[in-house]
Amino acid sequence: MESGTYYINRYSLLNEKTKEKASDKLQFTTLELTKFNKSAAESRTYLDKWMFCIKHQAELLEQPAELKDEIFNELFEITDLETLTEEDMTAYEKSFERCYGAELAADYAMERGLEKGMQKGIEQGILYTANRMKENGMDLELIVSVTGLSPEQLRNMGLK
Q1: At the N or C end, where does the chain have fewer CB atoms within 10 A?
Q2: Within its chain, how far is the Cα of 160 from the centroid?
Q3: What are the strands, taking DSSP E only, across the chain?
Q4: pLDDT beyond 50 at 3
């Protein structure tokens, strides 16, 4: 381990008078995330990879190539907020607020609201364009080709 990168520390209980270990079986290990500074590419061992995941999970938008492994695939699947039910999302948001405070929760809610708003705007733009195309006599096959959506998706969105 390089100098100054001691993020794994092991402690044993000692008798203050004799300086002997109280037990060979009792030991405490701490992992200090603030001292872990490796990138995903630099994380070679499973311990380093787990440390990287734990430290950076909240900010990762996608799974790094270096973490394409069955256990990490499962981790990223479990932590994908898009897969949560509405009830689970509500529970997550309440937990998030308790852990990180109202300010961070508000920032997260704002970001999530912006994402939802942008997605809604995109959908409305596609629907508007699809309706204009239809009004101008273009057939459904061309509209599907241009929008990239299926006829069913277009009807569900409200194509006239």
Answers
A1: N
A2: 38
A3: 8-12, 27-31
A4: no
Question: Using DSSP, how many helices (H) and how many strands (E) does the chain show?
Answer: 5, 2
At 155 the three-state DSSP class reads helix
Task: Answer left, alpha or beta for residue 28, where phi above 0 means left and psi between -120 and 50 means alpha.
Answer: beta
> Between 134 and 104, where is the model more confident?
134
The C-alpha atoms of residue 36 and residue 51 are separated, in whole angstroms, by 7
The CB-based long-range contact list for 29-36 (8 Å cut-off, 24+ gap) reads 31/7, 32/7, 32/8, 33/7, 35/5, 35/6, 35/7, 36/7
- d(Cα 88, Cα 11) in Å, to the nearest integer? 39
Q: 72 and 53 in contact (C-beta within 8 Å)? A: yes
Q: For residue range 108-136, what is the model confidence (pLDDT) as tens digits?
A: 888 888 988 898 898 889 889 999 998 99
Asked if residues 96 and 104 have their Cβ atoms less than 8 Å apart, the reply is yes
Residues 4-50 pLDDT 10s: 568 889 898 888 899 888 888 888 899 999 999 999 999 999 999 99
Q: Whole-prediction pTM value?
A: 0.45
